[in-house]
Amino acid sequence: MNKSSSNSPVFGMNNVCFIKDGNDILSNINWTVNAGERWTILGLNGSGKTSLLRLAALYLHPSSGGIKILDNELGKFDVRTLRKRIGFSSQAVVDMIRPNIKTSEVVVTGLHAALETWWDSYTDSDIARATALLQTVGMGDKADRVFNSLSAGERQRVLLARTLMTEPEILLLDEPTAGLDFVGREQLIATLDKLSIEKPNLPMVMVTHHTEEIPTNFTHCLMIKNGAVVASGPIDEILTSENLSECYDTQVEITKKDNRWYSL
Questions:
Q1: Reduced to 3 states, what is the DSSP secondary structure of residue 234?
Q2: Would you say residue 7 lies in a domain?
Q3: pLDDT 10s digits, 94-104
Q4: Phi, psi at residue 85, to the nearest 5°?
């Protein structure tokens, strides 16, 4: 069960800046995520989206400004302990997983944020939970398959199950649809929609380039350009042609059909 109550702050950045190799990657970021909110982060390549998410996941440290997550202020807690309460998924994790590991083993290693089962001990209930999570993401019949034999879309759904292994209190997804074909993308979007219904209080943040990849139940949008916030707030107010055109530096028209967003 998630520990955060509905509409309570789960995560926040206050005037956060991030400098790398002398370059300003993020500037004066102010952003708050509450329980039950599901955010999409939009922006061009190099705009700072991934750095923003890695700061939220506590894998990067801001150059200045404050971060508060799950009632803890950065600098006043052990990040290794708090990371276990954060579900973080990125392609970098997929790339580090041994190709011939079993799918169910990939999921159960998420309990200790490990990459191999031999580093820790797992109980029968841990294995049962991993199997149940594979069912949740529509991969129950692939539990005994070798991870590398799965399609790119299937691997992303397995990775999603892995992030849920610790019952995270916030879910951070860095371009989970990148490299997927149409079928894989739609299956993952449907899985996220299903998850938002089953866990309505679980806050989610998903980085993407494309508006059509935003699940139907997402509630908020953050647009970022050159490391600065262009617009932020409820998705129906923020996801406009004017804001997208500003964010992408080109004329963009946005339409909404059947609760999905399409831009051209």
A1: strand
A2: no
A3: 777 777 888 99
A4: -95, 0
